[in-house]
Design a protein that fits this description.
heterodimer, A: 560 residues, alpha/beta, five-stranded mixed β-sheet, B: mainly alpha, globular, Bact_solute-bd_prot1 (chain A), SBP (chain A)
Chain lengths: 560, 319
């Protein structure tokens, strides 16, 4: 290459770099100009109308677009929020997996003003790393001005492990915690379980309440398969799920109920290393191999799973009752065939042969944080504080008083016309901007469904809520116990980096084993990964867990 | 013939220019260079500048320090990749899928081009060409969804047809025995038409006098294909083969990402999907870049080897 050409290339490169810098500079200047650190909105006691500001929100929940009104600016709730706080929220929802979204978001630096996402697991680990690496705003000073928000991250209200994680930055505070029960009556029991079409159980002459053991479930599913029931030209599938096999793992609870570690007599064993996990995997493998579980259960998308569920193709479906209600599975199937009513199956036994021992955890689901480059932290805190107040919570969950509900004896009563509208056109309430799934509730502080409102919106009229009570009678004969203990924070174990990539393979290998042609092949897959885990130090992790458990006990028994 | 053409070409393109003459020549043909500019800028922005990102393979990436400021980590991630317990399995899957695609997918467009060239009915020929090109323009997302729907054991047309003949329903997308055939055939279906364009162009460039001479000498259709068409395609075919071999470590990310599932993951996980899995899903950017760099280096080495072998054996090479 001649010197002339090189000089020319250098000029082109210099031009591109200059352009990039200029463009980046413009971007920075733009953001800067919209960052009035001391805007009027700063003063929470001010009676002046707060300055109008638009804030971007990333809701890291794939599929949550369904919870957002198409008109984000002019729905009644958005209008009320703007009137009270001057803030317009422009909400985006992730299209990829939650962990993938976080990794790409921080790597590209494309950050929203406010982040809302899962409050636990790997998502929490990445958020902690991001906070330590300066990607999230320290809100300690702002929090002190807002008692409601401060209360939401106080030890009194938070599960210990979540509290520890949120307060692990010395005197700095980065995260807020949302949608966890304000009072014991607000603790939500999702009613996870297997649900069966009563008409099909009748057809094969089995009482759904009589199915408790793995053998009984196997026999029941086999009877359904052998009956070869056809509806509208299609075969009824004995056991099905939602996308990616959710929630078929519920059948696992028949064998073991311990959490990450099985800890007995001071000895800890990682759950994947236990003999129980083999039984559980081989059981599911058998069900798949014999065509008792939908072969596509672990490979299908939500659209395909919904198609099958809404057509009533699954005789038994693994889910929680709210999922079946929210996805309109129960109402649609029943509409097409009035005899096809989904009722709880069993419940299934736990490892001790008890079908009625059930635990729930008083936990929330949303971590809220202000991100680096937030264009107006004061306005962000103002809007979050408003949403977390009783007024904001009622707005997000029940709508506008006089329009969507009226007050009677201190409790809100939904206007029946809205319940009817929702029945006619599903999603009407979400288009209005409210409801217990509305995206605004993700930022609306503690869950006060029963303590403040006496029940979910429309429970007085909506018959599906009667289903919940009926199901509770069958599934929770002995009530529910509040989960004790904390979850282990594996990242605190030195040497976890070596184990992490392998532990992240557990789920994939388990699913591969479900589809293995033979039991030997399944065991080969399990043992292969176990061997690698041993080499990477799983037994050291187990020893660490046993020690940690002695200091402050982990949760040892957990049903869904 | 070449000698007659060469002098004016040399003059026009300015071979062996003296100092400064290059710019004069560029200026003279500025319109052509202007056409080339978007391509050059594209390569600089999307192919050359991002090369710097490869340094991530040697760094402990931090969100706050970014690509430039993160501390160096040496060859740590390469070591982790080479000792990863599924390393051999992933490399094996990648190579097996690529080789199968190459064995079947490489000659397929040549065959189609030859067949199309033999078709005399113009309308039929054009229709076949158009229909065979179309799949190239359909994204893998759509193709994967179509395949899942067509081959599902739950009411898919293929299984329904099989069932009507009293055959057992088969979960084609979840059976290891059918997975590779499904992958290879769908790739061939998608690429055969578009791939044949270049061969059709090459066939069109063969001197018709050669065919006439062959016919006079009594050669039939088959002999003409064997002794005129195929040798005429040799240069193009070898060039494309060399380039295809360079992509041996790329077994088709989109296709495998969309079509692989837990039932076939043990034979369907390839380097590309592993890179995405470890990079984006596990946030191990350094490790993922190291695996990606390894993939590229192997690709480059393969191109160099095949190019040299081809130069020696056939006298055809890309440089």
């Amino acid at each position: 290459m001649s010197r002339g050409v090189w000089k020319g290339t250098k000029s082109i490169l210099a031009l591109i770099l200059t352009m990039s810098v200029v463009l980046a500079g413009c971007g920075g200047a733009d953001t800067g100009s919209e960052s009035p650190a001391n805007s009027k909105g700063n003063d929470t006691s001010s009676t002046d109308k707060p300055k109008d500001v638009t804030l971007t929100v990333m809701a890291n929940w794939p599929g949550a677009d369904a919870f957002i009104s198409k008109d984000q600016e002019n729905n009644p709730i958005a209008k009320a929020i703007k009137e009270k706080t001057g803030v317009t929220l422009k909400i985006e929802v992730t299209k990829v997996s939650t962990v993938e979204k976080l990794n790409t978001m921080f790597a590209t630096g494309d950050l929203p003003d406010i982040y809302v996402g899962p409050a636990w697991g790997e998502e929490l680990n990445i958020m902690k790393k991001a906070a330590e690496q300066g990607q999230i705003l320290d809100i300690t000073t702002q929090l002190s001005k807002y008692p409601t928000l401060t209360m939401n991250v106080s030890q009194e209200f938070m599960p210990k492990d979540i509290y520890d994680a949120y307060h692990s930055f010395g005197d700095k505070q980065y995260f807020m915690y949302n949608r966890y029960p304000a009072k014991p009556e607000d603790i939500k029991d999702w009613l996870h379980g297997l649900f069966v079409r009563k008409d099909i159980a009748d057809k094969v002459v089995v009482d759904p309440k009589s199915v408790h053991t793995p053998e009984q479930l196997y026999d029941f599913l086999k009877k359904i398969k052998d009956a070869n029931i056809q509806e509208k030209g299609k075969t009824i599938i004995p056991l099905g799920s939602n996308a990616n096999g959710w929630a078929l793992y519920l059948t696992n609870k028949m064998f073991y109920n311990f959490t990450t570690f099985k800890i007995e007599n001071g000895i800890a064993q990682h759950s994947f290393m236990t003999p129980e996990v083999e039984k559980q995997i081989l059981y599911q493998r058998k069900l798949i191999a014999e065509g008792l579980i939908d072969p596509e259960a672990y490979t299908q998308t939500t659209a395909i799973a919904d198609e099958k569920a809404l057509q009533g193709r699954y005789a038994v479906i693994a889910a929680h009752l709210y999922n079946l209600i929210n996805r309109k599975v129960i109402s649609t199937v029943e509409k097409d065939n009035p005899n096809a009513v989904y009722v709880p199956l069993g419940p299934l036994n736990n490892a001790d042969g008890d079908p009625y021992r059930h635990t729930v955890k008083a936990e929330g689901d949303n971590l809220v944080a202000l991100m680096k480059g937030n264009k107006d932290p004061e306005a962000s805190m103002r809007v979050l504080n408003f949403l977390a107040s009783d007024e904001g919570w009622m707005l997000a969950n029940y709508g506008v008083e006089g329009v969507h509900y009226e007050m009677a004896d201190g409790k809100p009563v939904a206007k029946k016309e809205w319940i009817d509208k929702e029945k006619d056109a599903s999603g009407t309430l979400l288009q209005e901007g409210f409801g217990n799934q509305s995206i605004y509730t993700f930022m609306a502080g503690q869950n006060r469904t029963f303590s403040l409102a006496g029940g979910p919106y429309g429970h007085q009229f909506d018959e599906t809520y009667k289903r919940i009570t009926e199901a509770q009678k069958i599934m929770r004969k002995n009530g529910v116990e509040l989960l004790q203990g904390r979850n282990p924070v594996l990242t605190e174990f030195t040497g976890f980096d070596k184990l992490k990539p392998l532990l992240e393979q557990v789920d994939a290998v388990t699913k591969q084993a479900y589809y293995a042609k033979t039991e030997d092949e399944a065991m080969g897959l399990i043992n292969n990964l176990r061997g690698e885990l041993e080499k990477a130090g799983i037994h050291e992790l187990e020893k660490w867990a046993a020690e940690e458990d002695k200091k402050s006990p982990f949760t040892k028994y957990k049903t869904e | 013939m070449q000698q007659q053409i060469r002098p004016p070409v040399q003059q026009a393109s300015g071979f062996a220019p003296r100092k400064g003459r290059l710019w004069k020549e560029i200026w003279k043909h500025k319109a052509f260079y202007l056409f080339m500019l978007p391509g050059v800028v594209w390569f600089i922005i999307f192919a050359y500048i991002p090369l710097y990102g490869l340094t991530l393979a040697f760094k402990d990436y931090r969100f706050d320090l970014g690509m430039f400021g993160s501390p160096w980590a040496g060859f740590k991630y390469f070591h982790e990749f080479f000792v990863y317990y599924q390393f051999k399995e992933i490399i094996r899957n990648t190579i097996v899928i690529s080789v199968l695609k190459l064995l079947i997918g490489f000659p397929a467009p040549i065959l189609l081009a030859i067949l199309l060239n033999e078709v005399r009915h113009a309308l039929f020929k054009r229709s076949v060409q158009t229909i065979s090109y179309l799949p190239h323009f359909i994204s893998w997302v759509v193709v994967a969804t179509l395949m899942i729907r067509i081959f599902t054991p739950d009411g898919g047309p293929v299984n329904e047809l099989m069932a009507s003949f009293g055959m057992e329903r088969v979960f084609f997308m979840g059976e290891k025995a059918y997975f590779y055939p499904m992958i290879v055939l769908s790739a061939v279906w998608k690429g055969i038409g578009f791939g044949s364009i270049i061969y059709l162009a090459a066939i069109a460039g063969i001197d018709p006098q050669l065919y006439e001479a062959a016919r006079i000498d009594g050669a039939g259709r088959f002999r003409q294909i064997l002794h005129i068409t195929l040798p005429g395609l040799k240069t193009v075919a070898v060039t494309l083969f060399i380039l295809d071999v360079g992509g041996l470590m790329y077994a088709g990310f989109e296709q495998l990402y969309l079509l692989s599932n837990p039932a076939v993951a043990s034979i369907g996980t390839i380097l590309d999907t592993h890179v995405i899995q470890s990079g984006l899903k596990q946030g191990r950017f350094g490790y993922a870049t190291a695996a990606g760099l390894f993939q590229s280096v192997i690709g480059l080495i393969l191109v160099l080897i095949v190019n040299r072998v081809s130069k020696r054996v056939n006298g055809v090479s890309i440089w």
